[in-house]
Amino acid sequence: MIVLVIVTLYPFLNTIVVSLNAGNDTIRGGIYLWPRQWTIQNYKAVFASGTIYNAFWISVARTVLSTLLNIFLTTMLSYTLSRREYVFRKPITIIFVLTMYFSAGLIPGYFLIKDLHLLNSFWVYIFPSMISAFNMIVIRTYIGTIPESLVESSKIDGAGDFKIFMRIIFPLCTPVLATIALFVAVGAWNSWFDSFLYTSSKQELSTLQYELMKLLSSSMNSNNNPNVAAGVGMTQDSAISLVTPLSIRAAVTVVASVPILLVYPFMQKYFVVGLNVGSVKE
């Protein structure tokens, strides 16, 4: 287990070390677990652009809304399709499963977004991700493990389907919902291609990942990047000596990863299956 922990943590620790090491020194190699020349110029280069901060809040808003809506709507759909008395549950399930295997492609998808008037709109980040076929199957399978006696007793007491869903099913699905929430949040946080396709002409809707991708691309294309030099408040020659594509890439990786990693400690306690054990005694 110690070897496994070392193998797992070393790449991330090495990335942090490289991001804190002077770029011209990093090119020499031999950077492992401790920087040879400490510097924060790599992070200054990342945060030099004023668009980074607005992009950060756009990414946060996108991640939070996408996660909440996806969890609630997908769980509601999963509960509906898990009911044996619902006569259309099988054909509807098949339709959703088919979307996992077949796609119309990029161009028809773009024209669909255009016809829905979602281009250059914040809601283009939200509406397409409100329902997930894979998450629906996972949640529906979990709902199938909840004792049917709970639903039957609630119906005897006069509870309707929506009340049963909100008071019984949704709370008992907390473990699987926590897992799905992480999947959705990580996917929404890391996504940048939809920003490139649908909102690239509207700077105020750019996401953090898209801005970091542009910064990384510009640094990889040329070591002599005047924007980076100007952003860190140095001369162009001094910036080149401290900021290189390798060091920028490490700093970008850390900046993009740390916010979503902070969510894991708060969600970890929900990764326990069996909250409904003991709720029914037979």
Structure description:
This protein has helices at residues 2-19, 23-26, 41-46, 51-82, 89-101, 106-115, 133-143, 148-156, 161-172, 174-190, 193-198, 208-221, 226-231, 236-242, 245-261, 264-267. Residues 224-241 and 273-281 have low confidence and may be disordered. Helices cover 66% and strands 0% of the residues. It contains 16 helices and no strands. With 282 residues, the protein is mostly helical. It has a single domain (11-270), classed as MetI-like (MetI-like fold).
Keywords:
globular; 282 residues; disordered C terminus; single chain; 16 helices; MetI-like fold; mainly alpha
Task: Summarize, please.
It comes from Paenibacillus dokdonensis. Belongs to the binding-protein-dependent transport system permease family. This protein has 282 residues and is an all-alpha fold.
Low-confidence stretches: 224-241, 273-281
Major sheet: size, sense and barrel closure? none
What is the percent of helical residues?
55-70%
CATH topology: the name is MetI-like fold
What is the quaternary state of this protein? single chain
Strand content: under 5%
